[in-house]
Automatic annotation (TrEMBL):
<feature type="transmembrane region" description="Helical">
    <location>
        <begin position="395"/>
        <end position="414"/>
    </location>
</feature>
<dbReference type="InterPro" id="IPR050327">
    <property type="entry name" value="Proton-linked_MCT"/>
</dbReference>
<feature type="transmembrane region" description="Helical">
    <location>
        <begin position="171"/>
        <end position="193"/>
    </location>
</feature>
<feature type="transmembrane region" description="Helical">
    <location>
        <begin position="364"/>
        <end position="383"/>
    </location>
</feature>
<feature type="transmembrane region" description="Helical">
    <location>
        <begin position="142"/>
        <end position="165"/>
    </location>
</feature>
<feature type="transmembrane region" description="Helical">
    <location>
        <begin position="303"/>
        <end position="325"/>
    </location>
</feature>
<feature type="transmembrane region" description="Helical">
    <location>
        <begin position="84"/>
        <end position="104"/>
    </location>
</feature>
<feature type="transmembrane region" description="Helical">
    <location>
        <begin position="12"/>
        <end position="32"/>
    </location>
</feature>
<keyword id="KW-0472">Membrane</keyword>
<feature type="transmembrane region" description="Helical">
    <location>
        <begin position="331"/>
        <end position="352"/>
    </location>
</feature>
<dbReference type="Pfam" id="PF07690">
    <property type="entry name" value="MFS_1"/>
</dbReference>
<feature type="domain" description="Major facilitator superfamily (MFS) profile">
    <location>
        <begin position="17"/>
        <end position="419"/>
    </location>
</feature>
<dbReference type="InterPro" id="IPR020846">
    <property type="entry name" value="MFS_dom"/>
</dbReference>
<feature type="transmembrane region" description="Helical">
    <location>
        <begin position="238"/>
        <end position="261"/>
    </location>
</feature>
<keyword id="KW-1133">Transmembrane helix</keyword>
<dbReference type="InterPro" id="IPR036259">
    <property type="entry name" value="MFS_trans_sf"/>
</dbReference>
<keyword id="KW-0812">Transmembrane</keyword>
Amino acid sequence: MTLTPTAQRPRVHRAWFVAAVGFVAILGAAGFRATPGVLINPLQEEFGWSRGAISLAVSVNLVLYGLTAPFAAALMDRFGMRRVVALALLLVAAGSGLTVWMTATWHLLLLWGVFVGLGTGSMALVFAATLAGRWFVRHRGLVTGVLTAAGATGQLIFLPVLAQLAQGPGWRVASLAVAGSALAVVPFVWWLLRDRPEDVGTTALGADQDAPRAPVPTGNAAVRALTVLRSAARTRPFWYLAGGFAICGASTNGLVSTHFIPAAHDHGMAEPTAAGLLAVIGVFDIAGTVMSGWLSDRVDPRLLLVAYYALRGLSLMVLPGLFAATPEPSMLVFIVFYGLDWVATVPPTMALCRSIYGADGAVVFGWVFGAHQVGAALAAVGAGLARDQLGAYDLAWYGAGALCLAAAGMSLAIRHAGNR
């Protein structure tokens, strides 16, 4: 009698486990990204610091968050994702935890600006781009979208909690909660994250088994990052992508993430309620970003960017009117449309960097992301100063909306950018 061998269940590819660890790591760092909007008013009340001074610390954070990215991408190529991400989480924990002893604005600049800016900038989106590029060929866009959405998920989880802590036990407890969350992720990164498929005897998901292994860079990571920038800066697509992404940062991290809660407070909305609305944006952002990743595998990413920027610009232009009306029901209009493309621009931008710049795509995206954060920094401090001088944020909302429409035009221009 012939025995039929039992059919073996297909094994889950190791890439999915690595992606899961990456998701948790980005989630752990997302807590501090949600902190500034919650803590601006408590810091102003306790220390008497102006919103402009506090926003300056946020701007330093945003600039370093972006400008660290290309060097972090090169460091991940040279020393591995595991080491860079573990160190980044330790910096986030230190920067957040030490704020409980600050007494001067320069302490805020050092801890919020430098420590946390370097830590969060060393992972986040460049980490997502590097991980997806190394471990996935099939489903790469989808995985990019999911990893990008981890930041929104962190906002969804942390914002309401941090707002309650800031109003109850105090802002110091909120800062310590963020530090503890970042520290808790470090063991998972160190024990479970692997740098390349070849390290565990496999290949990227969907890759040809006979595909040659990409060489590991051995030179100076900083020199490589600058060399890639010099080469990319000679091409027109780089400037279209960087310009559009600078406006993306100005209209999200710099403006809404930093100033939505204080602006809502100006219109009589309680801070926990405003934080809850901002967290609901995260719900729609998760859906929009994952869908954007899926679409980036199937649709021209340039056309996706045109649609995303145009819709964002229109939603920002209606926000002042929504603040002036009864906020609870009407604000849902903004929450839905703005939330769906909060970071939906990331997967198509990553896809364009990979398709145009090949093996240097992750480092090029790091520089494009640096432009994103420069735009965010300018918007953060600019909106704070506008509020101090004019007593309202209306000019900031309308200006950001107009810039988003300009970004849609830049994205369309990539179609006519020509050859590199």
